[in-house]
Design brief:
The structure is a homotetramer.
Chain A: E1 2-10, H1 18-29, E2 34-38, E3 41-46, H2 48-63, E4 68-78, H3 84-96
Antiparallel strand pairs in A: 1-3, 1-4, 2-3
Helix pairs in contact in A: 1-2
């Protein structure tokens, strides 16, 4: 299991990107993988190949009508762990000693 | 105003990183900037120089006892906008037509 | 065709990472895809699925003996273009009006 | 000393970005810091505050006429080392046992 954070957007559609991001999030939400959406991207949790499969599906949907696309991905793998979408946050809050803004 | 997402961790302290991330989050939480903490990083909102100043403070605190440090930063600037930690999410949810997991 | 830049390293092996990076580069070099290696990562050029396939192979080779792995990926797609490992650099040098350090 | 890799581009100027990238590279080239330019970004070597200062200058030059800007930054700090723009590559090539494409 990995955490895979990604963001993806077209460069040839002007500065308002939410319609294109929404297209990706509909794919993420239907993927069956657990995820969290935040202001700078989306975090998936699952096997690496399934997470990359979601990124590819989002890319194909965007490439259907976009001439240039940028995508950044960050992967964090820790052997034998899952449920890390929540546990990583809890572990840091525990050490800081108070709730953080989420 | 920008959104600046960052993550920072030492490479020479083994695989359990939350004590080091907690050190950064204490600095973020005390900075006065609005922020959101998630499983793969922290998003700050503010003027670029103030956001970079927080990243530098976190780096200095980590470099005090760490021999190798990795940090990734992503910046999203949109002229004349603020409150985007929440509004970007709302705008995408509005287009998807249902609430997303956050 | 996309350009896909990636870097990947273990977090549980101390601060000297070149033996692990070398393992990935041997996979990259044998992949048949065109690539460039630089001080902060490797850039592949090819179809998205083939480029992601190389990243997955590198990940599997690293996960064989590493307990925590970080990987960052950046993708740049431009419809109908190839040979961009060189042409993007030439295009910027042309606008700057002099050779840049490469 | 750190290695700081960054890329920066406007989202509201269409898909041809080299004129904007060239503006940043002119700033980088005049900064006095050692650097390498590649197809997906630029790597600076220097003290963290000076490297971030170059990123800020590039941002200000771009924000002068761009309404939305994306920037990604990756920092690699290793205590007591310099000359790593070249030595990191040499160290990996040495382990692979043959020259890599650069």
């Amino acid at each position: 299991m990995v955490l895979l954070e990604f963001s993806m957007f077209p460069l040839d559609k002007g500065e308002s990107l939410s319609p294109y991001v929404a297209r990706s999030l509909a794919i993420v939400d239907a993927s069956g993988l657990d995820y969290r959406f935040h202001a700078m991207g989306t975090i998936l949790e699952g096997p690496l190949d399934q997470c990359l499969g979601v990124v590819e599906k989002c890319f194909e949907a965007m490439a259907a009508d976009c001439g240039r696309i940028e995508c950044s991905v960050k992967i964090d793998y820790r052997k034998g762990r899952q449920g890390r979408l929540d546990s990583k946050i809890a572990s840091v809050e525990d050490k800081v000693g108070r709730p953080l803004k989420k």
